[in-house]
Amino acid sequence: MTAPVTLTRAQKAAAILVAMGKPSASRLLKFFKQEELKALIEAARLLRTIPQSDLERIVAEFEAEFTEGAGLLDSADKMDTILESLSPEEVSEIMNGRQVETAPEGPPPIWPELEKLEPSRLGRFLAGEHPQTSAMVLSKLAPQATASVLLTIDKPLRGEIMKRMLTLSTVPETATRIVENQLRTKVLAETSSKDTSAGQARLASVLNEMDKGQLDEVMDDLAAAGTPDLDGVRARIFSFDDIPLLTQKARVQIFDGLSTEVVTLALRGAPPALTEAVLSSIGARARRMIESELSSGSENVAAADIAQARKTVATTTIRLAREGGFDLPAAQTADAA
Description:
mainly alpha; Annexin V, domain 1; elongated
């Protein structure tokens, strides 16, 4: 349990003023003496974030003293006398000091939660909504999340949504709240009660760190143990040996962003079919360079370097698939089933 914060009387007064907000606090400033205001300014500079429970304790203490007639800081000087001795910066320091942690008003924003969802899940929901609504929702997300979701939507509808995003004006707050409530009810609530994709992704990220032999052994153990949603885990698993199972378009997308050094290392000692699947996905000039390097043999190349290069290829493939560029081979098999 966190120990309550210890504050001076001036810091407590500054905390109460900050918590009250500028309009109410401004009306109280005329009741403070010059030296009291200076003490408040210094206290506000040193004031750190205060938990809600400690703020409530400070307010309760103030209420008790006020009831007894002690007051917080006694003063009755006129406002003009005080303000003449204070600069605008000093007044601003009081009013805009470190913010006190208060209880949030209303439900938290939903947009960060939507960005954590699988793009295909949000894409399926938006595909059933009016394009204008979909455009508004996607305009609230981070660019990377928006792009990932758009790639999961069929081209005709995707084009319509993007056209509306281009011309989207300011959405009234009332309309935004209605859409947010629908998203909470139809997307986030369903996700929290039924979706196991987060757990599948966590387990798959662990399994993707294993080599092919270890991975096969662990997957057999999970199947024997009756692990639920194992197909969902398989759909997120990929190793370097699975490269030939990808489409030509997917392979081109993968190796277009990798250096020839990484590709050359990854192909050291690889089977001919896998090597050809990779080399057929890159340009003629890069292929000649890689083939020339491979012909020199792999005797002086560390096995750890080869393993790391293959891991880089696999990680890149998983990332691109997660962003909606293509499906992993296991996911394609699951969809067909």
